[in-house]
Amino acid sequence: MTDDFILEMRGITKDFPGVRALDNVDFKVRRGEIHCLVGENGSGKSTMMKILSGFYPYGEYEGTIIFDGKEQRFRNIHDSESVGIVTIYQELALIPELTVYENIFLGHEIKRGRFIDWNETIKKAKDMLLHLKPDLDPSRKVKDLGVGHQQIVEIAKALSKNVKLLILDEPTSSLNEDDSENLLRIIRELKKKGITSILISHKLKEVVEVADTITVLRDGKMVGRLEKREEFTEANIVKYMVGR
Ligand code: ADP
Ligand code: MG
């Protein structure tokens, strides 16, 4: 692996009333890798990713974010998306009443102020979904899909925005075995296309299976960074998570 880091977060500290959620955390992600972020409940994983996505804007945390070689001071989620950082949330952000292809394309087609050629749009959505989940019909309403399929739509939406870094915060926690496997397959496919992923998961079996690098948080501190395959065992990760 090269030392080409797409992301460096340095000295990140974040306080909430009465709790230091993150304490001087350094976090580095290589371009094109699958980077797993693990830690017990409340260790600061989601807060870290919310800082990266601009949900907590510049000024509401201490530290520095370097993405794609530039210091970033995101004011909101739109700012981070505009440089290619897209988050798939635990709580899904789709519009249930609209179809799959409308959800994938509507937002930014309208933003660009373009006339929408729906035939072309459906065809594009079909092409995209073909790689992700061939049996998913783009003309179905999102509210009629299961969680697993809704996540696929979120990923298709992210891909249509030219994502460089995909953040997945516990995406498989509400998925069955098949949908989880499919999601991990997709993350690996994206890696082949050069897309970097940060995956938060408490399922250590899948972490061990899919990770190139693992960062462990405990009580808001970075306590471990595992880079060698032979270190990737569930027992070893747990050791870092609980601090023995
Ligand atoms: P994780 O995702 O690893 O479970 P979080 O980042 O959600 O952890 O939370 C880290 C710590 O910050 C926890 O102690 C949690 O209670 C606290 N926390 C998170 N979000 C908020 C918030 N909006 N207000 C107050 N405390 C919060
Ligand atoms: Mg969380």
Automatic annotation (TrEMBL):
Protein name (database record): Monosaccharide ABC transporter ATP-binding protein, CUT2 family
Subcellular location(s) of the protein: Cell membrane
Domain spans labelled ABC transporter: 7-244
Superkingdom classification of source: Bacteria
